[in-house]
Each structure stands twice: as structure tokens, then as C-alpha cells.
Amino acid sequence: MEKLKIRRANRLMLMLFEEWKTHTNEGRPLKIEWNIMHMFTSSQVAKIYAIRYGLNPELCAMIAVLHDIAVVEGKFRENHDGLAGEYIKGAIQRYNDGGRYKLEPITTKETKIIISAVTVHGDKKNFSNNSYAEMLKDVDSLDAYFHGVNTENARETRVEKILKDFKI
């Protein structure tokens, strides 16, 4: 079995964790602890999903790590997906400027894929041809289910589809 190439995603997650762990819960729609936990667990689910569906595990993990960045850094809940682009660019810039240490930078092409997936992940009802956006919608739904969060309607449809496909 080949070793997963996942170090950039792990480093990005660690960088954000170091930044976010000092945030307070004041004015937040969700507790910072929830956001950190969801960042870690959704990135793990994303890697499993990527392996199952033939996507890039590191890219899927980075997408999952960054998907709720506007909730954390902007304290937005409504339309947090649509507002995430600038926050993602900022986090990737911080990573590339030194947070990555000796690891490869996150490329412009990868940044575009990340933003294209994150900015539509709130629209769980509609399906697209963007495999990374669909991955994130599915992973976000499944991770919520694993945490006991309400998964009615479109989230429930996605969770049922994935569990059936994984024969769970």
C-alpha cells in the first residue's frame, strides 16, 4: 500500500488550529471548539471519501480543512460558503508565506479548486459536475451525521447515499 501524501493538508490544519485556538466564542454563531473539531473530523472523512471515489486525498483534506473558514474568521453562518473565497486566499497566502515550512506551496490551480468547492458547499440540494464540490457537500453532511447534528432533507439524502455506497 502506498503512503498517503497528505503533509500539506496536515500542516495547513495545524497552522489554522494554532491561529484559531486563541479565539473566543463571543459573537460566534457556533463555538470555536465545534469548528476546530469539525475541521479535524471532516478532513479525515474527506480522505476516506477521496480514496473511495478516486479523488486526490490531500486536496480533499485541504478543502475540508478550509470549508468553514468564514464561520471562524468572519463569524458568518448565513452564506458562509459564498463568503469564504477571500478567507481561503488569506489562509493559503499565510501557509505559502511561511506556515508550510519546507513543504510545497498550495498552487494557484489548487486554490481555484478549493474555492470552487467551498463556495457552493451550502447548496446540498443541487448536484453538479464538480467532483470536489460534491465531495465537500457529501463529507460535510456525513460529518454532521457522525456528530449527531440534524441531517434532514438534502443532507439526509446525501448521508443515505454514502452509507449505502459504503455498504454501512
Mind explaining what this structure looks like?
With 168 residues, the chain is mostly helical. The protein has one domain (7-165): Orthogonal Bundle (Hypothetical protein af1432), CATH 1.10.3210. 63% of the residues lie in helices and 0% in strands. The chain has eight helices and no strands. The chain has helices spanning 7-20, 32-53, 57-66, 69-74, 85-99, 108-118, 131-146, 154-165. Helix 1 runs parallel beside helix 3, helix 1 crosses helix 5 (85-99) and helix 2 packs across helix 7 (131-146). The radius of gyration is 15 Å and the shape is globular. The mean pLDDT is 94.
Quick gist of this model?
The chain has 168 residues and is an all-alpha fold. The chain has 8 helices and no strands.
Question: What tags apply to this protein structure?
Answer:
168 residues; mainly alpha; Hypothetical protein af1432; globular
